[in-house]
Design goal:
This protein is an alpha/beta fold. It has two domains: 284 residues; 170 residues, Glucose Oxidase, domain 1, CATH 3.50.30. Helices cover 39% and strands 14% of the residues. It is built from 21 helices and 14 strands. The protein has an eight-stranded mixed beta sheet. It has a four-stranded parallel beta sheet with strand order 2-1-3-4, sandwiched between helices. Strand 7 and strand 8 form a beta hairpin. Helix 12 packs antiparallel against helix 13. The longest helix has 20 residues.
């Protein structure tokens, strides 16, 4: 008979049982597995506003399956609301807080398994990091994607509102038209609707095997999402009985599968950061260079926003992530032996998934007719990024640009210059001291990049930063530049007007300045004082690793 870890460890201690009786345990419940429900419900963002309904449904299903649910809360940050403000510095930090909080609650109460429910971007990797740390049976339930907004027959996402700001600044639309976009961009509950970071990471978790098939592309407001929460709870109870644990699933081959799918769907640059962090926690030897190796062999076969035409609900109707996986599996681009939380292999899961794609609405394309012949997340290196940087090159007409540097010490300075029309075609915009240490927190640059696109400069300007980008960013943009400026990286040595080359074809990012001059500049460079010395941002800046290793805070 199964005996709960919590009860087994304190089986002779009546006070333990007394506390549990106060929250509803009866005589027959003490031998049942105790399952934590990490509930990311919050009214602070549409991404998470529907999560409590899923938590209650999973709680009921756990009881019916013969286990004891114990619900607790964890935090979220709305990236969309904090974007472009000091508050955005807390976004990546929240990934660590979420991981720490889930680990703390589950291990403190000796829980036998955990069902984590999340919506906004950092909920997914935060939960996955905690699952890898604890290695107790676990499943992730994604809160679901938002449905597209509509305006004049066009699909809108939250990125539409950011781009409209740039269109207003360049005189392409007026204030009234901007407000119409604002009012229609986000029509209800759910995470941002394109293949942005939330939907990218939900897809990655489905491929890694810790979410159920088809769950990563469901709409938040559809009934199937509640049904999925209940089914996930049932599967978790079975996984506890079968002792299926996260580290059984999170293998090197599983991560290679996740990267392959992310390339195929045109996913967010943030996937590089988060998968490196999860793999590091799981003890898997994944490096930033693995992304480039996989990019060379896996094409982009999904036509999804931000650079494509369709949104995630369209992908779901077209067959979701299982359809994408089946196409890749048939093409020899996936490891079919990897397993999921149900104990099934990918080959078994996809056995009855048809390989054919619709020719009416080409959301998913066949391998023979890809959107791009290679993956879209390129790893660039050079004297500006010896440890590497990440470029999202889908949808750009000119992947090579050499131009004069326009240097900014913060995102705010950069955005102000863009909105004042001080950036011109051919410029290389440099935003530095926004890395994990220097920011701190590695802010996303959606406001500047969207303003550039909105002004019609998306194919004419490059932007490089030691910060990162929203999943909604596109254009010739290079983020995660490492080493970052705050720790002495060469991005901190750039002078206004220096010639900078960004070459996605050659995977090169460099400053065209003699080494002797760079060394002279380095000799007079002074490490800046931390922007925050106290509180969570101060603590984070002292602990965080390089973006090239996932920007983790629990490194040995």
């Amino acid at each position: 008979m199964f005996r709960s870890k919590a009860i087994t460890q304190g089986v002779q201690r009546s006070p333990n049982r007394a506390m549990l009786r106060a929250v509803g345990f009866k005589d027959g419940d003490f031998d049942k597995p105790i399952i934590g429900i990490a509930n990311g419900y919050s009214t602070i963002t549409p991404c998470n506003i529907g999560l409590n309904q899923l938590a209650l449904r999973s709680e009921e299903a756990i009881r019916l399956a013969g286990a004891m649910p114990q619900m607790f809360g964890t935090i979220t940050v709305s990236d969309g609301i904090s974007m472009g403000t000091e508050g955005m510095k807390y976004s990546l930090v929240s990934r660590e807080v979420i991981a720490d909080s889930i680990e703390t609650a589950c291990n403190a109460q000796s829980m036998d398994g955990v069902l984590a429910i999340g919506g906004c971007d950092k909920n997914m990797p935060g939960a996955m990091i905690s699952m890898a740390r604890m290695n107790i049976p676990a499943v992730f339930v994604y809160g679901g994607t938002i449905k597209p907004g509509k305006l004049k027959g066009n699909d809108l996402t939250v990125v539409s509102a950011f781009e409209a700001v740039g269109q207003l600044a360049s005189g392409k639309i007026n204030e009234a038209e901007l407000i119409e976009v604002e009012k229609n961009a986000c029509p209800g509950a759910g995470s941002c609707g394109g293949m942005f970071t939330a939907n990218t990471m939900s897809a990655a978790i489905e491929v890694l095997g810790l979410s159920l098939p088809y769950s990563s592309t469901m709409a938040a407001e559809d009934e199937e999402k509640c049904d999925n929460a209940a089914r996930s709870a049932e599967v978790l109870v079975e996984a506890i009985k079968g002792n299926i644990r996260p580290l059984d699933l999170l293998t090197k081959k599983a991560f290679e599968n996740a990267i392959s799918v992310i390339m195929a769907v045109g996913g967010s640059t943030n996937a590089v950061l988060h998968l490196l962090a999860i793999a590091r926690t799981a003890g898997v030897e994944l490096t930033i260079d693995d992304f480039e190796v996989i990019r060379q062999r896996v094409p982009v076969i999904c036509d999804l926003k931000p650079s494509g035409r369709y949104v995630t609900v369209d992908l779901h109707k077209a067959g979701g992530i299982p359809k994408v996986m089946k196409i890749l599996l048939d093409g020899g681009l996936l490891h079919g032996e990897c397993r999921n939380i149900e104990g099934k292999s990918i080959k078994e899961i996809l056995e009855n998934v048809p390989s054919e794609v619709s020719t009416e609405k080409m959301v998913i394309r066949p391998l023979s007719n890809p959107l791009y012949s290679k993956g879209h997340l390129a790893i660039l290196k050079g004297n500006l990024a010896q440890e590497g940087s990440v470029a999202k090159i889908s949808g750009i007409k000119n992947p090579v640009l050499t131009g004069p540097a326009k240097v900014f010490e913060s995102e705010e300075e950069c955005l102000e210059a863009i909105l004042k029309n001080q950036i011109t075609a051919g410029d290389v915009v440099v935003v530095r001291y926004e890395g994990p240490v220097g920011g701190p927190g590695m802010r996303e640059m959606l406001a500047p990049t969207s303003a550039i696109v909105g002004q019609g400069l998306g194919d004419k300007v490059a932007l490089i930063t030691d910060g990162r980008f929203s999943g909604g960013t596109y254009g010739l943009v290079v983020g995660h530049v490492a080493p970052e400026a705050a720790v002495g990286g060469n991005i901190g040595l750039i002078h206004e007007g220096d010639s900078i080359t960004v070459d996605a074809n050659e995977r090169l990012i460099q400053i065209n300045v003699d080494n002797s001059e760079l060394e002279r500049r380095r000799s007079v460079w002074k490490k800046p004082q931390p922007r925050y010395k106290h509180g969570i941002l101060g603590k984070y800046s002292r602990l965080v690793s390089s973006s090239s290793t996932g920007a983790v805070t629990d490194q040995p």
